[in-house]
Specification:
The complex is a heterodimer of chains A (440) and B (244). Chain A is built from 16 helices and 15 strands. Chain A has 440 residues and is an alpha/beta fold. A 9-stranded mixed beta sheet of chain A has the order 2-3-1-4-5-6-7-8-9, sandwiched between helices. Chain A has a 6-stranded mixed beta sheet with strand order 10-11-15-12-13-14, sandwiched between helices. In chain A, helix 1 runs antiparallel to helix 2. The longest helix of chain A is centred in the middle third of the chain and has 20 residues. Chain A is globular and about 60 Å long. The two termini of chain A are 29 Å apart. With 244 residues, chain B is an alpha/beta fold. Chain B has one domain: Class I glutamine amidotransferase (GATase) domain (Rossmann fold, 3-Layer(aba) Sandwich), CATH 3.40.50.880. Chain B is globular. In chain B, a hairpin with a 2-residue loop joins strand 11 and strand 12. In chain B, 33% of the residues lie in helices and 30% in strands. Classes of the chains: A alpha/beta (440), B alpha/beta (244). Chains A and B meet through helix 14 of A and helix 1, strand 7, strand 8 and helix 6 of B.
C-alpha cells in the first residue's frame, strides 16, 4: 500500500497545479523525489497487472485503444492518456484515482512509456505485459543513434513477467522475442500485400526505390488482413473480423492490431477473466475485443477532427520519417487543403534534418507552411517538387490563412506546434467542449 | 544535355541523419542549371561507375560505419586519386572522420581512415549535439546541426571550413569546424548542410562543371532556383537564431 503521506502531498500539489494550470507531471515529480517505492506499491495492487506500451510511433493511440476498449468491456483501467509518458507522468495519472489511504481501486494499468524512461519504469516495477510497437529513427538529437533506442526497448522486452507482445514485421522488434524471460511471446503483423502502406527507415533512406518483399508471418496471433476505406479486416487466432474503425489511416489500423494482440495477451495469462470470481462476466473473446477496439476514437492531435465554420479540419501528429511518410500514404489528400507545421523545441526534436528522409510523393501542393522551422520545411518541399503557397513563422497567422475557404483541410504537425494549433482550433470549434482529454 | 555523375557513397549505411538531402539538393540544382544529373548509389560490394564528377557521403551509426569499413579500405586509393585530381567531394560527420588518417577508439585502438584529409578523430564519452553555426571565408554563414561523439584534430597546414560562432564543430578546443583540401570538404554539419547553405552546393557544382566541361561560370539561376534561394536565406536566418 502507498504511504498516505505521499498520496496527500501528491494530491495537494495536483490541486495547486489545477489552479495554476501547470503541466501534468509536477505532482509525480514531487512524489518521485519523496517516495521511491510509490510506483511499485501503487501498481502492485492491480489484480490484472500492468501493461506498458513502447516504441517510436503510435504509443499514445495504441494505449488509448487498449484502455478504452478494456473500459468498454467493463474493466476499471488506470492509464496516462494525457500523453505524459515519463515515470512522473504515470504517477501523476494515478494520483486522482487513489484514495487518501493509498488504495488504487482499478483492475489493470495500461501505460505508454517514453523509450528512455521505459527501462527506468521496468526497474522500479517489472510490468506484467510489455507491448513493443516499432523502432524507427526518431529524436536522434536526444538519443544519438537508433541503436541506443533499440537497446532500451530490448531491456523492456526482458522485463515483462507474463506476456510480451511484439510487432512481427520488422527484424529489430521481432528479434526481442529471444530476450523474453519466462513471459509468453506473441506477435501481431500485417498481410504482406499491405507492405507499401508501411514504409520503414530502410525504404526511405534508399531513395524510396523498392519495398523488400516480406514473408507472411504464420506465428502472428493478430494479422491486419485488409483495408477498405474506413473498414479494417483482422485475422485473430484464425478467425476473420471486418469492422468499421473509429480511428483513421493504415498506421492506426496496425496500432489496432497491436491493441487486439495486447488485450489477447492479458486474456491468455489471466485465468480470472471469464472464470468464477469478479471477472466472470468479462467477455474477452476475439470478437468482443475487435469490436471494442474498433469503436475507439483518436487520441488528441492524432487524427483528431475539428469543425470550423463550413470546414472540417483534421490534425495529424508527425515527428519522424516513418511516421510522416505513413501518414501521407494513409490519409487521402485529393481536393483537400494541406498545411504543414514544423517546430524545433526539444519535444519535437531540435534537429529537423529528418524532413529530407520523408517520402512526399503522395503530396501535390501545400497551402501553408508554418512553425519555427517553416522555411526549412518549405525549402524541403520545394526541392521535392511540391508547390508551397505560403510560408509563415507565425502559427496563428498561418492558421487564419489556411482556414479560409470551405474545403476539407488536413494539418500535418510536429508535437509542440500541435499543442498550439489545438488550442487555437478548440477556441474556434464551437461544437467541442473544452474538457476533451486536454493535452495540458 | 551535359551529364554530371554523382557518387553517393554508402547510401544505405551512411545516410542516417538526413544527409541524403544533399544528394537530392545537388541533383535538383544541377537540373535547374540545365545539366543532366546521374546519381550512382554505391554500397559495399558494388562497382564504381566509370566516370565520377562528384562524391557525397553522410553520417551513420557506429554499426553502419562497421558495415562499410572493409569496403572503404578497398576503395581508398581510388578516392584519394579522385580528391587529388580536384573532384569535388562533401563528406559529413562519419564519412568526414573516415576520410581522415585514423579514428582512435575509447579503448585506444587506431582504426585507419583513407587519409584524404590529414586529420584524426578521437572517441570521447560526450556527444556533441545541437545547432551549429559557423562563418566561412568561402561560403559565408553556414548553419546546420551536429551530432557526434568523436572529436577531430589537425595541424594548421589543413584549412578548416569555418570558424564556429555557436556549437562545437571539430572538437571542444579549437573553435573550428570541418576541413578543405583541393575541392574536398569535410564537416560535422547535418541539416542537411546544402539546404540552408546553397553557396556550398554551387561550389561543388561549379567544380564538377569545370573539371568535366572546362566551363567556369554557372548559368544564371532560373526563377524556381531564385525562389528556392530566397527560402534558403530565410531558413538560414531563422535557424541561426535558434538555441543550441
Amino acid at each position: 500500500m502507498c504511504s498516505p503521506l505521499s498520496v496527500a502531498v501528491g494530491k495537494s500539489v495536483q490541486g495547486a497545479c489545477g489552479i495554476l494550470k501547470r503541466g501534468h507531471s509536477l505532482p509525480g515529480l514531487v512524489i518521485e523525489k519523496l517516495d521511491k517505492g510509490f510506483l511499485s506499491s501503487a501498481l502492485s495492487q492491480l489484480p490484472l497487472g500492468t501493461m506498458i506500451i513502447c516504441g517510436t510511433n503510435g504509443k499514445t493511440t495504441t494505449a488509448r485503444l487498449i484502455s478504452q476498449a478494456l473500459r468498454e468491456m467493463g474493466l476499471k483501467v488506470a492509464t496516462n492518456d494525457s500523453g505524459a509518458n515519463f515515470t512522473r507522468g504515470i504517477i501523476s495519472s494515478l494520483l486522482p484515482l487513489m484514495s487518501i489511504s493509498g488504495k488504487l481501486p482499478c483492475d489493470i494499468g495500461v501505460f505508454e512509456l517514453d523509450e528512455a524512461w521505459a527501462p527506468v519504469f521496468c526497474q522500479q516495477f517489472p510490468p506484467s505485459y510489455a507491448l513493443i510497437l516499432n523502432c524507427s529513427r526518431d529524436q536522434l538529437d536526444r538519443y544519438g543513434e537508433r541503436d541506443s533506442v533499440e537497446s532500451m526497448l530490448g531491456q523492456v522486452a526482458s522485463c515483462a513477467t507474463k506476456g510480451l507482445v511484439l510487432n512481427g514485421e520488422g527484424e529489430r522488434v521481432k528479434s526481442f522475442s529471444s530476450l523474453a524471460k519466462g513471459a509468453k511471446v506473441s506477435f501481431y503483423d500485417f498481410d504482406p500485400a499491405l507492405a507499401p502502406l508501411f514504409p520503414r527507415d530502410e525504404n526511405l533512406v534508399c531513395m524510396r526505390q523498392s519495398f523488400s518483399p516480406k514473408a507472411p508471418d504464420s506465428q502472428a496471433q493478430v494479422l491486419l488482413k485488409g483495408i477498405s476505406g474506413s473498414e479494417a479486416t483482422f485475422e485473430v487466432k484464425g478467425s476473420e473480423f471486418t469492422v468499421e474503425m473509429g480511428v483513421e489511416g493504415s498506421f492506426n489500423f496496425l496500432n489496432a492490431a497491436a491493441a487486439i494482440a495486447g488485450i489477447l495477451s492479458v486474456c491468455d495469462c489471466c485465468p480470472e477473466i471469464g472464470g468464477k470470481g469478479r471477472y466472470r462476466a468479462v467477455d474477452l473473446s476475439p470478437k468482443a475485443i475487435v469490436e471494442a477496439v474498433s469503436k475507439v476514437r483518436p487520441a488528441f492531435g492524432r487524427g483528431e477532427e475539428f469543425r470550423i465554420g463550413g470546414a472540417q479540419v483534421k490534425m495529424v501528429l508527425v515527428k519522424n520519417p516513418v511516421g510522416f511518410s505513413s501518414a501521407l500514404r494513409a490519409i487521402p489528400l485529393q481536393g483537400k487543403d494541406v498545411m504543414v507545421a514544423l517546430n524545433d523545441e526539444s519535444p519535437d526534436g531540435r534537429d529537423v534534418s529528418w524532413i529530407y528522409d520523408v517520402d512526399y510523393s503522395n503530396l501535390s501542393k501545400v497551402k501553408e507552411v508554418t512553425g519555427e522551422r517553416a522555411f526549412d520545411m518549405a525549402l524541403c518541399l520545394e526541392y521535392n517538387g511540391k508547390e508551397v503557397r505560403r510560408a509563415d513563422l507565425n502559427i496563428e497567422k498561418a492558421l487564419g490563412g489556411f482556414l479560409e475557404g470551405p474545403r476539407e483541410k488536413v494539418i500535418f504537425t510536429s508535437y509542440t506546434s500541435m499543442l498550439s494549433l489545438r488550442k487555437l482550433l478548440l477556441d474556434l470549434d464551437k461544437s467541442k467542449g473544452k474538457n476533451l482529454y486536454a493535452a495540458d | 544535355m551535359r551529364q554530371i555523375d554523382i557518387l553517393s557513397l554508402y547510401t544505405n549505411d551512411m545516410s542516417f541523419y538526413g544527409d541524403m538531402g544533399n544528394v537530392l539538393i545537388v541533383a535538383k540544382r544541377l537540373a535547374f542549371y540545365g545539366f543532366e544529373p546521374v546519381v550512382h548509389f554505391y554500397n559495399p560490394g558494388d562497382d564504381f561507375p566509370e566516370h565520377i564528377d562528384m562524391v557525397l557521403g553522410g553520417g551513420g551509426q557506429d554499426s553502419g560505419q562497421k558495415n562499410i569499413f572493409d569496403d572503404l579500405q578497398r576503395r581508398g586509393e581510388r578516392l584519394r586519386e579522385l580528391a587529388a585530381q580536384g573532384v569535388p567531394m562533401l563528406m559529413i560527420c562519419g564519412m568526414y572522420q573516415l576520410f581522415g588518417k585514423y579514428f582512435l577508439t575509447n579503448s585506444g585502438k587506431k582504426i585507419p581512415g583513407i587519409s584524404v584529409f590529414d586529420l584524426y578523430t578521437e572517441a570521447t564519452s560526450d556527444r556533441l549535439i545541437g545547432n551549429l553555426v559557423e562563418e566561412s571565408d568561402l561560403f559565408g554563414r553556414l548553419v546546420g546541426y551536429e551530432n557526434h561523439s568523436g572529436q577531430t584534430y589537425f595541424s594548421s597546414r589543413l584549412r578548416s571550413l569555418g570558424k564556429v560562432v555557436s556549437g562545437s564543430g571539430n572538437n571542444l578546443k579549437d573553435g573550428f569546424d570541418g576541413a578543405i583540401i583541393n575541392n574536398a570538404i569535410g564537416t560535422y554539419l547535418h541539416g542537411p548542410v546544402l539546404s540552408k547553405n546553397p553557396k556550398l552546393a554551387d561550389f561543388l557544382i561549379e567544380k564538377a562543371q569545370l573539371n568535366r566541361y572546362g566551363i567556369s561560370q554557372l548559368p544564371s539561376p532560373s526563377p524556381v532556383l531564385k525562389r528556392i534561394d530566397e527560402l534558403a536565406t530565410k531558413a538560414n536566418e531563422a535557424a541561426s537564431r535558434r538555441p543550441r
